[in-house]
TrEMBL record:
Catalytic residues (UniProt): T193
Biological classification of the source: Bacteria, Pseudomonadati, Bacteroidota, Flavobacteriia, Flavobacteriales
This protein's name: N4-(Beta-N-acetylglucosaminyl)-L-asparaginase
Keywords, ordered alphabetically: Signal
Flavoprotein keyword on record: no
Length: 332
């Protein structure tokens, strides 16, 4: 052994003796904790966008805007607008399936990095309801506007009123009327409510969630998507989460808020999504009959997703790449 190596090894051994193995282990743990803490306090400034389901174009739109330095809130609202305006999508915006009386009613909310939020519920005739939720947040003393009031506020503020029931959706609705069986379908067409979370170049996180809700729901029914804490929640010090699936179950467990709180207590986004799904499935034996899926992001730009039934994917945009991520599921 060369003299220098010998001295180094001997010194380490002597040090190990001096400190004792226990102390060394403690030193290791302290180092790990310090590293964890350092990581916890790190804010990613490389933009990341994630969204529920395989809404490729919507997520790419938000990702590209984030790369240009656009704030997260504006990027996600532009991102989800792609699906709100896509008439082929029967679960979001124009072209959405109607309630059981034939009315298309939309729900949406937004939340930004300052903790500010806005929401609209059961709105008819307005396509871009996430943008409308932002307007409520910024230009009213309230957080939520519902129904006619939300629609009138939209029109007064320059949103176009238009019929959201497309020929296709009307045809499907008339077909449904023949049996009128209300049974939400798991993983509807594999695209569903769009919940989107963005982390921008300043390290700020914001989110948007927008939907036409469950097809053929009761008139006046509102799901989780416009309910802050359920369909969406952001805490810029920690991260954000969004939900899709059976809104009633997400509301009962305040799913998105739960995920952010679990991350605050040290869980990764993935662990937090899994725990939030566990909350539902352990208390509700009926969970084999409905889908719930979550997505989450933390301050470091780490992401996670999890669901009850297989078949859910999220989109993830990072480092200029927009990729689908197949979610793990409670049921296999
Ligand atoms: C709702 N969570 O209205 C929404 C819709 C959805 O599967 O995601 N359906 O309950």
């Amino acid at each position: 052994m060369k003299r220098r190596n010998f001295i180094t090894k001997t010194s380490i051994n002597t040090l190990a003796f001096g400190l004792g193995i226990h102390s060394l282990a403690q030193a290791g743990t302290a180092k790990n904790s310090a590293e964890k803490l350092k990581k916890k306090n790190t804010t990613a400034t490389t933009p990341v966008a994630i969204c529920t389901w395989q809404f490729t174009e919507a997520n790419a739109t938000a990702g590209a805007l984030l790369d240009q330095g656009i704030p997260a809130l504006d990027a996600v609202i532009k991102g989800v607008a792609v699906e709100e305006e896509n008439i082929k999508n029967t679960t979001v915006g124009k072209g959405g399936s109607p309630d059981r009386e034939g009315n298309v009613t939309l729900d949406a909310c937004v939340m930004d990095h300052t903790g500010n939020c806005g929401s609209v519920m059961c709105v008819e005739n307005i396509t871009n309801v996430a943008a409308l939720a932002k307007k409520v947040m910024e230009d009213t003393p309230h957080v939520i506007l519902a129904g006619k009031g939300a629609e009138e506020f939209a029109v007064k503020n320059g949103f176009t009123a238009e019929n959201l029931l497309t020929e296709e959706s009307e045809k499907a609705y008339k077909e449904w009327l023949k049996t009128s069986k209300y049974k939400p379908i798991i993983n509807i067409e594999n695209h569903d409510t769009i919940g989107m979370l963005g982390l921008d170049k300043n390290g700020n996180i914001s989110g948007a969630c927008t939907t036409s809700g469950l097809a053929y729901k009761m008139k006046g029914r509102v799901g989780d998507s416009p309910v802050i804490g359920s369909g969406l929640f952001i805490d810029n010090a920690i991260g954000g989460a969004a939900a899709t699936g059976m809104g009633e179950e997400v509301i009962k467990t305040v799913g998105s808020f739960l995920i952010v709180e679990l991350m605050r207590n040290g869980m990764s986004p993935q662990e937090a999504c899994e725990e939030a799904v566990r909350r539902i499935v352990t208390t509700n034996p009926n969970h084999t009959n409905f889908q719930v899926a979550y997505i989450a992001i933390n301050k470091q730009g780490e992401t996670g997703c999890y669901c009850i039934h297989p078949g859910f994917k999220m989109m993830k945009y990072a480092n200029g790449k927009n990729m689908p991520v197949v979610s793990g599921s409670h049921l296999k």
